[in-house]
Amino acid sequence: MAIHPLERRWFVVSILLVLVMGLFVLYTAWAAGIHPPSNVEAIDSTRLHLTPEFAEDHLGVERTKDGTVVARIVMARYMVHPQEITLPADTPIVIRAASADVLHGLHVAGTNIGTQVVPGYVSEVRTTIRFDRVAAIGTANPDGSVTVPLFCNEYCGLGHQSMWGRVRVTKP
Amino acid sequence: MSDTAAPRDGLSGVRGLALAHMWVGFALFAVASLLGVYQLFERDHVVRISAELYYQSTTLHGVVQAFVLTTFFIAGFGYAITAASLRRPIRRKGLAWLGFWTMLVGSLVAAVSIAAGKATVLYTFYPPMVAHWTFYVGAALLLVGSLAWTAITIAETVSWKRENPGRPVPLAQFGMTANAILWAWTLVGVVVEVVFQLLPLSLGLTPTIDVGLARALFSWTLHPIVYFWLIPAYVVLYSIVPRAAGGYLFSDEVGRIAFVMLLVISLPIGLHHVFVDPEQAAGWKLMHALGTFMVALPTLLTGFTIAASLETAGRLRGGKGLFGWIGRLPWNEPVALGGILALVALLPGGFGGLVNASYAMDVMVHNTAWITAHFHLILGGTVVTAYFAGAYALWPKLTGRRLSSRGLANAQLWMWFVGLLVLTVPWHWQGLLGMPRRVAYMPYDPAIVDRWTKWNPPMIVGGALMGLSSLLFVWVLFRTHGNPERETDPALHLSETVEPVVHVPAPLNGFAVWNWLLVVLMAASWAYPIGQFFSMTVHKALAWGFR
C-alpha cells in the first residue's frame, strides 16, 4: 500500500467536510425539528369522496378549535380542489392533501409547501408562510393580500401543465 | 471461441463487440440530444407543437440518455477495458453478442412504443400511470441483455485472479468489476418492480398496484444507477486520462478505495429520491440522507487524485509554480481535454447534489429545474464528457485509424462544456425561484412565470450548442473509420502509477467481503422501508393511462 501523505491529509479533510454537513442536517432535524413531510398515513384513494375528511364539503380551509389552520386539498387530473384557498401569513398552518387518481406533486412557490401526493397516502405539510416571501413573487390584490400559484409539480399525464390553483395569502 | 492469434493487449479480439455496443449508444445519444433541443424550444414557445409531443419527447430523451446510451457504452467500453487491461481477448463472446442483440431489440421495442405515443410515462415510469406492455418488455430486455456484460466482466476477473495468484487486478478492470457487481445489485429494485408490478398491471392481469412499494423499489435502483454510469467515467479518469495528459496516476490504491466506496455506499441510500413522499417515515429518510453525504467521499478522493495526476503531467511538461502546471497541460489533446472538463463539471454537479441530499432543504428544490440542472451536470457534464474522452482514446485503437480531426474533437468538447454551463446555470436559478421541471407550458400567473422565463434565452443557446456538439461528436467518430492515416500503435496503454503497484491487500483486490457487507447494509436500510408495505394497511391504486 502506497498512499501519499498528501492524500491521507485530504482524506481527513474530506471526512471532516462530510461530517460537518451531516451534523448540520442532524442539528436542524433534531434541535429545530425540521423534517420533510413524512406522516405515513394510508387512505383509500378510490373512495376519497366517501371519507369524512376529504369529502367535497370538507375541502378547503378550516380553523380548528385550538386555533390551527388546516387546508384540505384533493389533487385529481387535472385540477386542484378547491381551486383557490385563502391562508393567513405568519401563522402555523397544516396542509393535508390526497390524490384521487395518479401521482401528483403539490408546490406553492415562495413557501415551504412542497410534497409528493401519492395515491393511497395522505400528505401533510406543517409550515408557516412568510408574507414578505410571497409578496416578493406573487400578484398583489387590492385588499393587500397576495396571490401565488399552487401547482402540480409531478408529471401526472398529458394535461399536467394545466393542473394548478391559487393560494391567497392574507396579512396576519 | 477465442482468438489464438490475438496480440498481447487483447483489444483486437473485442473490436467488433466494443464498436457495435458503443455505436448503438452514441447514435441514439445524438438523436436524443436533438430531442432535448426541441424540448427547450417547446418550453419557450420557439415552436409550439403540443404538450403531448413535449412529454413524449421527454420520455424518449430520458430513456435513451439514462438507460440506453449508458448501458450500451458501458458494455462496449467495458469489453475493451477488460481485454486491454487483462491483455487477453474475452471468453464467452457468443454470450456477449447474445446480450448485445437482446439489449438492441429491447431498446428498439421500447423506443417504438414511446414513439407511437403508447408510453408517455417518463423514464421514471410513475405508476399507477401505466404504459403499453411493450414498453416494459423492451425495458426488461435491455436490462436482462446487460447482464451478459455483467456476468462476463465478473467471470473474467475471477478467472484472471485464479491464473495470476497474488497479482493485483489492474485498476481499470477492478473498477469495471465493481461496476458489474454494482449493476447486479442495482437492478434488483427495478426488475422486481417491472416483473411483479408493472408488467402484470400493463397486461391487465391485475387492476391495481401498490404505489408506495413501487416507489420504494424504484428508489432502490435510482441512486446506484447514477454510480453505474459514473464508475466507467472514473475508470477513464484514473486509467486513461493521466497517460493521455503525459503524466502518471498519482495513486492506484486510492482508485481502488474509491471504487469500493462507490459500490458499498451508493446502494443503501436511495430513499433520498423520496424525501418529500408521505409513505416513508422521517427517521429512515434521515438515515439515507447521512449515507448520501458519505457517498461524496469517493468523489472527493477521486477529484484530488486526478487533479494530482494531471499536476504530474503538467510538471513533467515543464510547468512551474503553484498553478503554472495547469497552462502546460495538453489542452489540444482531446482525451486529456475531455478528462479535464469532466473533472471540472464535477464541481458544480457535486455541489448541487449535496444541496439535494440535505434532507429537509430538498423541499425547496424538489421537482424544480434545479434538479434538472444537477443531473444534467452529472450525467452530461462528468459522465458523458468522460465517455467522449474514452471514445476518443478507444476509436483509433479499435478502428486502426487515427482520429479524423483533433481540432474538431476539441471544438466538440468545448461546445459541449460551455453549452452545458450556459444551460444549467439558469436552470439552477429558475429552480431556486420555484420553476417546476417536466412541464410543457406554464400557464400560471404571469407575475411569477415572467420571473422564470426571462432566464430562458441562455438556456436555449446552451441547449443548441450541446445539440450541435453531439452531432459533431458522432461525425468525428464516423469519419475516423474512413481516415486514411493509420494508427501505428494498436495497443491501448493504460496509465501507470507514480509508484509501481506490486501488492495490494485482498479487500482492495476483490469484492467478497464487500458483498457480504452490502448484504448487511441493504438489509438494514431497506428491509423496513420496503417491508412496511407488507405489514401496514395499504390501499392499492387503480391503473390509469396517461391521457
Describe it for me?
The complex is a heterodimer of chains A (about 170) and B (about 550). Chain A is α+β, with helices and mostly antiparallel strands and about 170 residues long. Chain A folds into two domains: about 1-35; about 45-170, Sandwich (Immunoglobulin-like). Helices cover about 20% and strands about 35% of the residues of chain A. Chain A is built from two helices and eleven strands; from the N terminus they run H-E-E-E-E-E-E-E-E-H-E-E-E. Chain A has helices spanning about 5-30, 130-135; strands at about 60-65, 70-75, 80, 85-90, 90-100, 105-110, 115, 125-130, 140, 145-150, 165-170. In chain A, strands 4, 6, 7, 9, 10 and 11 form a six-stranded mixed beta sheet that branches. In chain A, strands 1, 2, 3, 5 and 8 form a five-stranded mixed beta sheet that branches. Chain A starts with a helix and ends with a strand. The model of chain A has no long low-confidence stretch (mean pLDDT about 95). In chain B, helix 2 (about 50-85) crosses helix 15, helix 6 (about 210-220) packs antiparallel against helix 19 (about 510-535) and helix 15 runs antiparallel to helix 16 (about 405-430). Chain B is about 70% helix and about 0% strand. Chain B is globular, with a radius of gyration of 23 Å. Chain B has one domain (about 10-540): Cytochrome c oxidase-like, subunit I domain (Cytochrome C Oxidase, Chain A, Up-down Bundle). Chain B is mainly α and about 550 residues long. Mean pLDDT of chain B is about 95; it is low at about 1-5. The longest helix of chain B is centred in the first third of the chain and has 36 residues, at about 50-85. Chain B has helices at about 15-45, 50-85, 95-115, 135-165, 170-200, 210-220, 225-240, 240-245, 250-265, 280-295, 295-315, 325, 335-355, 360-365, 370-400, 405-430, 445-455, 455-480, 510-535, and strands spanning about 210, 540.
